[in-house]
Write a structure and sequence with these properties.
heterodimer, A: about 450 residues, 2 domains, B: about 400 residues, mainly alpha, 17 helices, globular
């Protein structure tokens, strides 16, 4: 148990915080699974359009590890398998049937899980398609089941607008969460760390060590938690998992069937006020109806994730495998007259060059997606470290990544990070450098070369 | 206005975009277009929002910080001229007009010639026209003597932009501060027009004749000789009192602070520079680490020389004179803080600034051939900045691994 205070950071003041109430989101007909969500995965399809599948039937498997299966979230007929670039299956659409048939798996009690050997739990999770919820650092990829990690980090914190508040998600599922923790504890020889935001109403759990993190964003980022609690050394691996996903694992183990629902937070300036809240949605179900009634604005961007980090998704997306929040904001293509010299009262900024940074922080802003400037050559100024609580020299790391210098990247600590840790550096950079993509490419290069 | 912009977006912009008739001229179009209005681009991927700051705004705000220096420089050039040439009916207005006639052509030539090079390279190398040029084009004239021939301004800024910046790849890739590179080039190539005792104040013969706007010149003086405070102090005989020598030449700490003395156009007035400094610090553009450690470095080195008790007269002036004499303060506030050529690490910035201050005094006192040490000190530390950063980064790497190990063992 430890309490950490993160001193550096920055909170983006944006409008549209979801209220802490959960609404059931009614049944849907269309379901989807997106193999493209699993980066680096080479899927082998087991179904084709027209096949009928039971809830829990295998849809595809990992070519590199055939034990790793991906199963159907609903019972029905495969409507289409849409291929993306290079004939990669981008999405598998499933039409729900009226009658439900499910595949069932073995059930365990919460206490029995504590006695299970590591292999059995890993195999069970691989077989049921829940293993990919567990990620591994460095490189933030699907965990390697063969190698026991140094520790497991459960992220129950929230700092970016608007990451789901886990205390809202957890209500009523405490025992499933405990079962999930028990399973994770068997996977590692070390500890399970449960990382919460300071002041959030989450109890302590057995088998897990609780930590609280106070401070501005990125105090809720997993990299920060790892860095403060047990930094990654060369040859170390740690498992990471989002707190809600632990509940899913717990439910699978105790009920013996695939978990049905997930709670998502919907927020952002382009969401109508009364719809900014939490929704209990069926896994894989289409969110089209929800977005249709809750979004407002001419051209809205929906993000699976928060305002700083996440993927753009279509407004007819289905609930994704990962992630507990969706954020909507308007595409802002407005152009401002003589923007280089206006006082900047009405333009959101963290820099004192804009007056808004001194006066406007009391209220929440209706932010859009404007770049607010054109791209310029990177200047190594040290500014990018301004909101970086990790012990990382961001500017130099970016420079090393641009120069493809893998040795220096590793020395400067890139393995401790994930592209999401550089979202604030991208945000504040006056040269509009795409820091996250540069770091992402650097990590890919290192992974290819091997450390 | 909106109709005009809509017309631009519909009919003009496509000509310059990929596949358009004037595709090669896109950087030029982009520069003009985004000068009028911020670009309408949206974020391609996460993070989905961006800060509303951009390079344009940063650079323009440096120009704003220079405004007190520019205005004072114009007045001072005219005022010095009118005093030296015994202009009878000199008023504030004639000072300003005379100063404008001397200074504005220099600024104009600097922007024109420098801008041509910048645009030429942007078009050929296909990079954006960088707003950093706006600062370079303004800093350079402010470091010159008001009587400098315009052709030298053109050659100097050409050297600064091309050799100091563009051959490295443009803003962000250069090693030296381009404005200082330009000035150093002139200093070594044409020493007669940029140093010595006769260049700081214009004489009636060498500049403009009498007329309605500028006042009446009573007598035509051929070449006005006024040594700068630095030259006076450097020339002081061994064993004499440099302060007294300065006093005899008409300099005391009051007028050196106010700045109504001969010198480079923008760098004589401490008050104007401090106004700019305040603006830069308040807006968070310039690094306070560089500036304050520079001032401390200068003061410490000055005090050290005084304490050593050498028989070099210059070394015996109090340290605060070093701060207000010559171009040091202008250099440390506006030149040394150039984000491209300065150290990038926080520790590095402190070392970098301190060394500039210390070296400035060292060069001034120890080497009478170069009365102004600030320019050379900054250029030297520009070259050293990557080395400083290298050591700071190495120390950081060592520290972070040992930190991780210690925490894991605990």
């Amino acid at each position: 148990m430890a309490n950490f205070k993160i001193n550096k950071g920055f909170n983006v003041k944006v409008l549209g915080k979801p209220k802490a109430e959960v609404e059931e989101y009614a049944h849907q007909q269309l379901f989807a699974v997106y193999p493209s969500e699993f980066e680096g995965l080479k899927p082998r399809l087991k179904v084709k359009a027209g096949d009928s599948v039971k809830r829990g039937d295998v849809l595809f498997e990992n070519k590199k590890n055939e034990k790793m299966l991906f199963r159907s979230p609903c019972c029905g007929t495969v409507k289409a398998v849409n291929l993306g670039a290079r004939r990669f299956p981008a999405e598998i659409l499933i039409e729900r049937a009226a009658q439900e048939e499910s595949v069932t798996f073995e059930t365990y009690t919460s206490d029995a899980v504590r006695q299970l050997p590591r292999e059995q739990i890993a195999d069970h999770l691989l077989n049921t398609g829940l293993w990919p919820l567990i990620k591994q650092r460095p490189f933030n990829k699907i965990a390697d089941p063969a190698k026991a990690p140094k520790a497991v980090f459960i992220n129950a914190a929230h700092s970016a607008p608007f990451q789901a508040d886990f205390s809202v998600v957890l209500k009523g599922d405490e025992s499933a969460f405990q079962t999930g923790i028990n399973a994770l504890a068997q996977l590692t020889e070390g500890k399970v760390h449960l990382c919460k935001s300071a002041g959030s109403d989450i109890p302590d759990f057995e088998q897990a060590e609780s930590h609280t993190f106070a401070g501005k964003h990125p105090s809720g980022n997993t990299s920060v938690h790892i860095n403060r609690i047990s930094p990654i050394l060369p040859n170390d691996t740690v498992y990471t998992i989002a707190a809600q996903d632990v509940i899913l694992i717990g439910k699978l183990l105790t009920t013996g069937e695939l978990p049905r629902t997930r709670i998502i937070a919907l927020g952002g300036p382009a969401v109508k006020d009364e719809h900014r809240k939490y929704y209990k949605v069926p896994l894989g179900a289409s969110l089209k109806d929800l977005f249709e009634q809750s979004l407002e604005g001419d051209e809205v961007r929906v993000v699976q994730g928060n305002i700083l980090w996440g993927d753009k998704v279509n407004a007819d997306t289905c609930v994704r495998y990962y992630g507990s929040e969706y954020f909507a904001l308007e595409e802002d293509r407005s152009r401002h007259l003589l923007g280089w010299t206006m006082p900047g009262l009405f333009q959101y900024s963290s820099h004192r060059v804009n007056l808004s940074s001194l006066m406007g922080f009391a209220h929440e802003w209706k932010l859009g997606t404007s770049m607010h400037g054109s791209h310029r050559a990177l200047v190594v100024t040290g500014w990018m470290d301004r909101h970086q609580p990790l012990n990382i020299m961001t500017d130099f790391l970016v420079r090393a990544a641009l120069a493809h210098d893998t040795d220096e990247m590793v020395q400067l600590g890139i393995l401790e990070t994930d592209p999401e840790d550089f979202a604030l550096a991208s945000f504040i950079d006056p040269h509009k450098t795409d820091v996250c993509s540069i770091i992402k490419r650097g990590l890919e290069e290192i992974e290819e070369e091997g450390i | 206005m909106k109709a005009l912009f809509d017309f631009m977006d519909k009919n003009i912009a496509p000509l310059f975009e990929k596949g358009g008739k004037f595709e090669r001229l896109y950087p030029l179009f982009e520069a003009g277009d985004t000068f009028n209005r911020t670009p309408g681009d949206v974020t391609p991927s996460a993070p989905h929002v961006r800060d509303s700051i951009d390079q344009k705004r940063l650079m323009i705000f440096v120009i704003y910080a220079l405004v007190p220096c520019i205005l004072f420089g114009i007045w001072n050039a005219g005022n010095q001229f009118n005093i030296a040439n015994n202009v009878e009916d000199a008023t504030l207005m004639t000072d300003l007009l005379r100063g404008s006639a001397m200074v504005l052509p220099i600024i104009f030539v600097s922007y024109l010639v420098g801008g041509l090079w910048e645009v030429l390279f942007a078009l050929v190398r296909r990079h954006e026209i960088n707003e950093g040029f706006l600062v370079t084009g303004m800093l350079f004239p402010l470091t010159l003597a008001p009587t400098i021939p315009l052709w030298q301004v053109a050659i100097g800024i050409s050297f600064g932009i091309v050799i100091g910046k563009e051959i490295f790849g443009g803003v962000g890739y250069n090693i030296l501060n381009p404005a200082l590179t330009a000035r150093a080039f002139l200093f070594f190539a044409y020493p007669a027009q940029i140093s010595g005792d006769t260049v700081w104040v214009g004489s009636a013969k060498t500049t403009l004749d009498n007329n309605l706007f500028f006042g009446t010149v009573a007598e035509n003086i051929d070449g006005v000789t006024r040594a700068t405070p630095l030259a006076v102090a450097a020339a002081a005989e061994k064993g004499t009192d440099a302060i007294a020598a300065l006093g005899n030449a008409g300099y005391d700490w009051v007028n050196m602070t106010l700045g109504n003395i001969p010198g480079s156009i923008g760098s004589t007035s401490v008050i104007a520079i401090v106004l700019g400094l305040g603006f830069l610090i308040a807006t968070g553009i310039a690094s306070w680490r560089v500036i304050f450690s520079g001032i401390i470095g200068c003061a410490v080195m000055g005090a050290l020389f005084t304490a050593l008790g050498l028989d070099n007269a210059f070394s015996q002036i109090p340290f605060y004179y070093h701060l207000i004499m010559g171009g040091f303060l202008f250099g440390i506030v506006f030149m040394a803080t150039d984000p491209v050529s300065c150290s990038a690490t926080n520790t590095g910035k402190i070392i970098y600034g301190f060394m500039i201050g210390a070296l400035t005094v060292l060069i001034r006192v120890a080497n009478p051939a170069y009365p102004e040490g600030a320019m050379l000190a900054i250029l030297f530390m520009n070259v050293m900045a990557p080395l400083i950063d290298h050591f700071v980064v190495q120390a950081h790497i060592k520290k972070r691994t040992s930190y991780a190990r210690a925490l894991n063992n605990a």
